[in-house]
Amino acid sequence: ITAEREVTLSPQGRVEANIQAGSIVLAGQVKGNLAAKGDVSLPADSRLDGHIRAHNVDVGGVVKGNIVGRGRVALGPRARVEGDVTSTTLAIAQGAVFIGSSNMDEERPK
Question: Most CB contacts within 10 A, which of 24, 35, 62, 66?
């Protein structure tokens, strides 16, 4: 799935595909990779089996895959990430589960 602007998936939505867009709000379930020029947001109760590459990434649900954020990656209190995170800033809220490694650098990740 490719779009120039925002792609939004409702909480009832289920997709098996890679998604590339300006920004992505994923409230449902996706098996595939997400790539955004802008931001990616996964609210609580969302699930992604795949990797994320975006500017900023906010995770409130479950991600089984690696995350590359050129800016900030934030894990909310109900987030669960099983994979590596590369970003310039990483914020992990109390209650979040992070199983993986973090690579933070002042240089922007590629």
Answer: 24
End-to-end alpha-carbon separation of the chain, Å? 22
Give Cα 34 distance to the centre of its chain: 7
Buried b (16+ CB within 10 A) or exposed e, 57-71: bbbbbbbebbbbbbe
Q: pLDDT, tens digit, for every residue of 56-92?
A: 999 999 999 999 999 999 999 999 999 999 999 999 9
pTM above threshold 0.85: yes
Amino acid residing at 75:
L
- Residue 14: burial class (beta carbons within 10 Å; 0-12, 13-18, 19+): exposed
* Alpha-carbon distances, residue 37 vs 4, 80, 82, 89 (angstroms): 9, 23, 23, 17
